[in-house]
Amino acid sequence: AQTYSSYKHHNTVKYLIGITPQGIVSYILEGWGGRTSYKYLTEHCTLLNKLHGTKRYRLSRQGI
After folding, report:
1. Which candidate, 25, 1, 27, places its Cα nearest to that of 13?
2. Cα Rg for the chain, rounded, in angstroms?
3. In whole angstroms, what is the distance from residue 7 CA to residue 29 CA?
4. Is residue 25 within 8 Å of residue 19, measured between CB atoms?
5. What is the mean pLDDT of each run of 10 residues along the chain (64 residues)?
6. Is the CB of residue 27 less than 8 Å from the CB of residue 59?
7. Between the CA of residue 55 and those of 6, 18, 36, 42, 51, what are the distances in Å?
8. Considering 41, 43, 48, 53, which has the largest number of Cβ atoms within 10 A of its Cβ?
9. Residue 48 belongs to what H/E stretch?
10. What is the structure's pLDDT at 64?
């Protein structure tokens, strides 16, 4: 299964969440299996398309 982690010994999921500088959640991507890579998530979401042309944005892996 794409959610089972042999390292953590249970099922895991990943979400990609966008948060504004003011701390407001502005984007939530549907959950993916925990084995999905962060690179794949970022490449296959629409969030980066929405940010194209903006002056600044930062990608961060929090809560790992």
Report:
1. 1
2. 13
3. 24
4. yes
5. 80 83 84 84 73 61 55
6. no
7. 40, 16, 29, 19, 9
8. 41
9. helix 47-51
10. 46
For residue 62, CA distances in Å to 4, 32, 33 come to 20, 16, 17
What are the domain boundaries of the chain?
A: 4-51
**Is the distance from CB of 1 to CB of 30 less than 8 angstroms?**
no
What is the residue whose two structure tokens read 């966008």? 18
Angle at CA of residue 11, ends 38 and 28, nearest 5°: 45
Look up residue 54 and give its amino acid.
Answer: T
pTM summary value? 0.56
Residues 6+ apart with CB under 8 A from 10: 4
Sign of CA dihedral 59, 20, 25, 49: negative
